[in-house]
Amino acid sequence: MSMFNGSRYQPQFFLLSGIPGMEDAHIWISIPLSIMYITAILGNSIIIHIIRKNSSLHEPQYIFLSMLAATDTGMSASTLPTVLNVFLFNHRKIEFHGCLAQMFFIHTFSSMESAILLAMAFDRFVAIRNPLRYTVVLTHSRITQLGLVAVTRGVALMAPLPILLKRLPFCKSIILSHSFCFHPDVMKLACGSIRVNVIYGLALVLCSFGVDSVFIVLSYALILTTVIGIASREGRLKALNTCVSHILTVLIFYVPLIALALIHRIGKYHSPLPHVTMSNIFLFLTPVLNPLVYSVKTKQIRNVLCRRFALKVG
After folding, report:
1. pLDDT of residue 257
2. Cross-strand pairs, 15
3. What is the pLDDT of residues 276-298, one digit of tens each?
4. Among 87, 90, 109, residue whose Cα is nearest residue 31
5. Count of CB atoms within 10 A of residue 25's CB?
6. Of 24, 98, 175, 301, whose CB has the highest number of CB atoms within 10 Å?
7. Is residue 5 part of a domain?
8. Is the model's pTM score more than 0.85?
9. DSSP letter for each residue of 85-133
10. Has residue 39 been placed in a domain?
């Protein structure tokens, strides 16, 4: 019982876990994980650098993309220390308050990414629905305001999570199911009533990710209505092509997120493997795939990358 202190039975630390049943292969699993982290941080940093250095990319669409890349970088940085510690060095301990801090940043960056994806959907809607007023509606000051709203909302909504967990006694176990701290995972170790935590967690999902996804779908419904009204087939294809990268990014983010939420709330499994697999897909693949999608599918980004690469090779 030395790991607990005070009447609240707060553990001094939690023990993180890797992939159940594959502990002997953790050192090998760390290799693709390390490659993914390098790809995510390097890829998103390159996107930010390219947009910052090229005045031709100082348009609303690319400014939002740089915000998305910054959020993905923050997401990767939030999980990197503990994940590589677990898989590379089998160092599983994480201090109680450090765990709560990591959990806060993971969920905050997730909420920010959702808000930025909504802003990008609005950007595509304005660009297609009313292209002549595009730069009038989405001024740099308005884009900055939308970015600040995304940050403020994420921090405000997620700040109560560690506070609500700190009030709970932990006397069941100190072993978490993931190699990072995730709110539903920490919450289930509490031996007190978690009713408030469950209700607040559900409200968070509905008020942030739920609302954002509804408005993204609504934006694309209006975009489709506008596209259908375009006379030429070439015009319709050109308009839709400008949305492909964003649609892929939305799917990469929301499909694993929805699956993870469903698994945690209605899935009953004897093995934690489904939870671990889906949470890893959500947190690791999203920051890796987003810069790859925009590098391949966005002509302007691709052209700048090709020019830079050609200059270095030459």
Report:
1. 83
2. 93, 175
3. 777 778 888 889 999 889 888 78
4. 87
5. 12
6. 301
7. no
8. yes
9. HHHHH---EEEHHHHHHHHHHHHHHHHHHHHHHHHHHHHHHHHHH-GGG
10. yes
Look up tokens 């600040």; give the residue: 148
Side-chain half-sphere exposure of 25, counting CA atoms within 13 A: 7
**Does the residue 2 lie in any domain?**
no
Q: Which residue in this structure is represented by tokens 């691709």?
A: 302
All residues at 6 or more sequence positions from 96 whose CB lies less than 8 Å from its CB, including other chains: 10, 11, 12, 13, 14
Per 3-state DSSP, the chain is made up of helix, strand and coil in percentages (nearest 5) of 75, 5, 20
pLDDT at 312: 56
DSSP 3-state of 4: strand
If you count DSSP H runs as helices and E runs as strands, how many of each does the chain have, helices first?
14, 4
CA–CA dist 43, 304 (Å, integer): 14
Instruction: Read off the CATH number of the domain in which 296 is found.
Output: 1.20.1070.10
Q: What single letter denotes the amino acid at residue 133?
A: R
Q: What are the C-alpha distances in Å from 105 to residues 74, 151, 220?
A: 8, 11, 30
SS3 228: helix
Q: At a CB cut-off of 8 Å and minimum separation 6, what does 242 contact?
A: 124, 127, 128
Distance CA 63, CA 47 (A): 10
Does residue 294 lie within any of the structural domains? Answer: yes
278 residue type, one letter: M
Q: Is the pLDDT of residue 145 over 60?
A: yes
The two tokens of residue 192 are 């007190």
Q: Which domain holds residue 92?
A: 11-313
- Tell me the pLDDT tens digit for each residue of 36-69: 999 999 999 999 999 998 888 889 999 999 999 9
